[in-house]
Amino acid sequence: MESLESSRSYNSGTVQTQFPFEQPHGLDIDQALPLENTKPPYDRHLVISTGRPDWTSRIEDDETSPNLAKGLKALMGAKGPLYDPEKRILISNSNFRTKAHEPEVIAGYLFPDYKYFLNIDLTEDGQARFVTDVLQSSKVSGFEYKPIETVTVLICGHGGRDQRCGVLGPLLETEFRRLLSGAGMMPYNTGNIPREAKAERRDIWRYDRPRPRTNSLRPRVARVSHVGGHKWAGNVIIYFPPQHLCGLLPSPLAGRGIWYGRVEPKHVEGIINETINEGKVIKELFRGVMEPNRMFLANSSE
């Protein structure tokens, strides 16, 4: 696999774009501390489909049913019966719509396994089995899932936790969806696309602009709950499936999850062009990377 370092982009000019939103004023965004290596260490990331745009400050305290995060955190937390300090699982709620048709089950996306679980059992025994067989190992027999074959863009938009991500998250989600849709890369629908995004789709990609070069034609875009680092809002995680291409060649980011911070609406087009389409990491936004082997890359040499 190609080194991440060889995919670095140091040209900050490539991240500028025309955008419909001004960066909101008055947000206390830390512009001083270095971003690299600020991604929290974790081995797997479970993204739960709740269909809701926001949650209580601690998602495990949310009284809305169903609440898979509450059960899983109770099982795997430091005082839980299935606690394992060697298995670091990041759990996020998302506004992805659940495709489950029964009230006793819910859907979720698991990275870097790149599996979409359609029917996670919400019973106590079902949740315990999902922890032991899936999250803490790789025994997926008996679980209904589909492979994730498209790029997944996750944006922290947890307004119930922090205003900064609560303000920037929806703006970034709209801008990603607007530009991806205009590029002929219609994202999976997580809700109604804002009217202004629909109106501008046809004018975004003109004939004098390079066309996207990727085989992931329908990126998933969603808002998620707290992932850490509100002071570096907006926070964006991009997961690339193992078969992701740049043109006709394997992407150097295939199988990886790229974390960006301090993302503003003006950066979104550059992220699509440079990172999603070209496989390059934008240095000034880079917080860290989730490796395909589920090991946290603690350091990146220059």
Architecture blueprint of SSEs:
Layout: E1 8-9, E2 44-49, H1 68-76, E3 89-94, E4 105-111, E5 115-121, H2 124-135, E6 145-147, E7 152-156, H3 163-182, H4 195-204, E8 220-224, E9 236-239, E10 245-246, E11 249-250, E12 257-260, H5 268-277, E13 281-282, E14 286-290
Parallel strand pairs: 1-13, 2-3, 7-8
Antiparallel strand pairs: 2-4, 4-5, 5-6, 7-9, 9-12, 10-11, 12-14
Helix pairs in contact: 1-2, 3-4
Notes on the protein architecture:
By secondary structure, the protein is of the alpha+beta class. 20% of the residues lie in helices and 20% in strands. It has five helices and 14 strands. Helix 1 links the parallel strand 2 and strand 3. The longest helix is centred in the middle third of the chain and has 20 residues.
Which key features would you list for this structure?
single chain, 302 residues, alpha+beta, five-stranded mixed β-sheet, globular
Task: Summarize the entry for a quick read.
With 302 residues, the chain is of the alpha+beta class. The protein has helices spanning 68-76, 124-135, 163-182, 195-204, 268-277; strands at residues 8-9, 44-49, 89-94, 105-111, 115-121, 145-147, 152-156, 220-224, 236-239, 245-246, 249-250, 257-260, 281-282, 286-290. Helix 1 (68-76) packs across helix 2 (124-135) and helix 3 crosses helix 4 (195-204).
Q: Rg to the nearest angstrom?
A: 18 Å
C-alpha termini separation: 18 Å
By DSSP, the count of extended strands is 14
Q: Identify the strand order in the major beta sheet.
A: 3-2-4-5-6
List the secondary-structure elements in sequence, H or E.
EEHEEEHEEHHEEEEEHEE
Helix content: 10-25%
